[in-house]
Amino acid sequence: MVGKEKAREKGNIGIMGGTFDPIHIGHLLAAEEAREKYNLEKVYFVPVGYPPHKKEELLSHAQHRYLMTVLATVNNPYFVISRIEMDASAHTYTYTIDTVTQFREILGPEKKLYFITGADAILDINTWKGYDELLQLCYFIAVTRPGYSLSRLEQKTSRELLSRISILTIPGVGISSTDIRERVKENKTIKYLTTSGVEQYILKNKLYCS
After folding, report:
1. What pLDDT digit, counting tens, does each position of 103-162 carry?
2. Percentage of the residues of the chain whose pLDDT score is greater than 90
């Protein structure tokens, strides 16, 4: 059975990785819900540098994605932006296990780490580099999204490791970065799909127009 217990220990830290191309309301809602339910001291947003599962030429420049993430989170004192993956060597693939290992080294052994990710990603957890070791390094918060079922998760890994994955159900927000990029390309409004600051940044820098 996938773990659903609520953590209340002090010093819990959340880590949310993603391309954030662009960051949107769904990301922010998931992070805030996780922060409250799991009593997270901070949630670190980690824009990916050079992800192995996506073609680099299809991503916006890392600096654009970083600045949009800063703009989206600046008003929440519990949200922190980390450049840990962006500052890695150019064209070096960045893997979650390496990122979590670095956070563990920086924050020390006493911190309880929670990696926050979407239901679509967690269903492929057994394909992640060193996923069994990763599930020993941190706990996972699987955020449910409309159209995804986590019932198949129990077939993906051992019962012991499943106990380190918790399900977080948030209000249904069917927003995706892909949809936002398509709307910009089609000259449609993206108001209220992301923050005002991110919306203005996209328009000012003419992102996703071609």
Report:
1. 999 999 899 999 999 888 888 888 899 998 999 999 999 998 666 677 778 777 778 778
2. 62
Contact 34, 7 (CB under 8 A): no
Which residues, in sequence order, are bridge partners of residue 115?
A: 15, 140
Q: Which residue has the tokens 């060193």?
A: 130
Backbone angles phi, psi at 39, to 5 degrees: 55, 50
Would the CA dihedral through 35, 38, 39, 40 be positive or negative? Answer: negative
As a 3-state breakdown, the chain gives helix, strand, coil percent values, each rounded to 5, of: 40, 20, 45
Predicted TM-score (pTM) of this structure = 0.89
Residue 202 has pLDDT above 80, yes or no: yes
The b-or-e profile of 101-135 (16+ CB within 10 A means b, else e) is bebeeebeeebbbbbbbbbebbbebeebeebeebb
Domain-wise residue ranges, the chain: 12-173
Which of the following CATH numbers is that of domain 12-173: 3.90.950.10, 3.40.50.620, 3.90.480.10, 3.30.420.40?
3.40.50.620
Instruction: Label residue 52 exposed, middle or buried (CB < 10 Å: 0-12, 13-18, 19+).
Output: exposed
- The band of 89, judged by pLDDT with boundaries at 50, 70 and 90, is low
